[in-house]
Amino acid sequence: MATAWTAQQQDAAVSALGFDERFGFLVDAEWLARENARLTRHLQAAKLKLSQACVEGINYPARRELDQALVRQLATGRWIAEHQQI
Description:
The chain is mainly alpha-helical. The protein is 62% helix and 0% strand. The longest helix has 28 residues, at 19-46. The protein is elongated and about 60 Å long. 0% of the residues are buried. The model has no long low-confidence stretch (mean pLDDT 90).
């Protein structure tokens, strides 16, 4: 939160805002920092072999017999909200 406050002090556009808006920005920055720290901690605990892997980086050669449309649909996570199983 101190880092966000220092950044606010250096930005003239933010210093023109009222207390409530500035305080809201500080709270948002703190929440985001905590969420990022939590995500980083969970990713490190997962010990993933390919930590930079992403859905967009999947290769779809014919020998793998992967349905690209199905993989994209599953990546949305809609199946979780609909309480379905894979």
